[in-house]
Amino acid sequence: MSASTVEATRQAGRSVFADLEPHLPGVSKPIQYVGGELNSTVKEWDCAPEGETVRWALMYPDAYEVGLPNQGVQILYEVLNERDWIVAERTYAVWPDMEAVLREHAIPQFTVDAHRPVGDFDVLGLSFSTELGYTNMLNALDLAGIALHAVDRGEHDPVVLAGGHAAFNPEPIADFIDAAVLGDGEEVVLAISEVVREWKGEGRPGGRDELLRRLAVTGNVYVPKFYDVVHAEDGSIEAVVPNKPGVPFRVKKHTLMDLDAWPYPAKPLVPLAETVHERFSVEIFRGCTRGCRFCQAGMITRPVRERSIETIGDMVENGIRKTGFEEVGLLSLSSADHTEIGDVAKGLADRYEGTNVSLSLPSTRVDAFNITLANEFSRNGRRSGLTFAPEGGSERMRKVINKMVTEEDLIRTVAAAYSHGWRQVKLYFMVGLPTETDDDVLQVAELAKKVIAKGREVSGRNDIRCTVSIGGFVPKPHTPFQWAAQLDHETTDERLKKLRDTVREDKKFGRAIGFRYHDGKPGIIEGLLSRGDRRVGRVIEQVWRDGGRFDGWSEHFSYDRWMEAATTALAGTGVDLDWYTTRERTIDEVLPWDHLDSGLDKDWLWADWEDALDPDSVDVEDCRWTPCYDCGVCPEMGTEIQVGPTGQKLLPLQVV
User: What is the rounded radius of gyration, in angstroms, for the C-alpha atoms of the chain?
Assistant: First the structure.
């Protein structure tokens, strides 16, 4: 059923909770559907003069327990609701048992705030951290009564808008979304809301197409229907060109400058059900210029923009007061790289000494770690394990990926940790990196053994543990590795088995080394979705129709289902699964995302890719501390690096 049909049978914006409530006892974790979290917001459906209210349904396309802690959605939820003419509510993917209830009783996909039908909103904004959430998006659209394909939607259907890291190549879902935004969302969601308000206030002139045209001509919103993709006879892309006057050839990403002016979330949501992160998080800076060639997040979020120590302190205190959380995570892509992280750590530890408040850092770079910093963060809380990410098992591989960490760096760091009372260290690596050999992967085992040996030596204890966690490498758009061939899953699994066996066979160290890894099959599908073009949409749709849901969860993922869909949906196109995944690209190939501008110069990316393959190339240093490497971001985006030191100190709280 379409949204317009739904609207004809009931009042728009009416809560469906009365229909839903009788069925809650029969589904798992019913509390995830009831809403009412601390700091959540419920506003009147018509909160502005007639015709001027703009309504957003914000979706993280995964289960509540994964989606609620997502900072991106929480920030936009708050930024939008601060405007008295905007209604913003949240929706998450429903579990299969709830999906069955909704379908059986004709209850549409609903928001958790006021239980309003998603199809009644003006905009459905989806935040994609991973491409494996695409089938959940299709399921939500279908449950909401929104036409699956954008071309079939009417004037009163929501604008389906994609954001998040995966939106930097939204081509695989181009048939299903109306628009996409690249980069930071705080300012652009307000700009989009203004366009929607103006269009509605004028009486919706020109219908849906005119609204989309107004969004597209700003140059800030990508509308796939206004771009034609031309294919060559061999199946490759010849060109992506606008088909409507005023639509730009390239759509630029958004970059939020002066993070101190946007201290969100100021009213963090406190979940009713258990979630994957039971803490309050403060983002201390955005961006990373370390230059790791595999890291899409680091490339697309440039430049580095730090929050000041005062703003960080204010956000931490505000979050503790507003939520009651006792653990605070200081987040960024590499939190220990904040220029004043030592002062931040000491200031917060001093402030909350003697309380139940504990501080934590996520995975820390080996070369940014020091014991003083670690001791400050563990002073008021429990001393948990430390996590480091060398990424490559051999020094040669770390040079290929521009991860400038030597074996001596790692051993020195873990020696310091073990000698100061830590007993557990976790090391994260990747398998399947460009130019990798079996020996490079087996070096992970040797490195782990040396870590254990050093830990036993400096601590004088035998209860030293090291957990090795292995992830499969997936080439991502807008990185130097966007041209790389992905390793096939059979070779990935074979190398992982050799590594596991090597670890287990060692009687001296085997029991002290934990080993966690995922098989290579999900990575191949992620690779298909990461670097796919519009033809991949047929595969996604077929998988969803065949029952695909929650593909990011190992217990729900089916490689066979994806393989069958790819074989069927890509038949006759001249391309197949391997064409998208295990094939290396050339410099002259038009990539599906070339018309989407992350600010990175393509020639610079290619040169960095060539450097990765050159054993005699020099390391690319962090441009925060060196001359500019001409990646293109700052001049292209009109931005600049914003880092300290500011000379500020975090003062103790004043007792009022």
Answer: 25
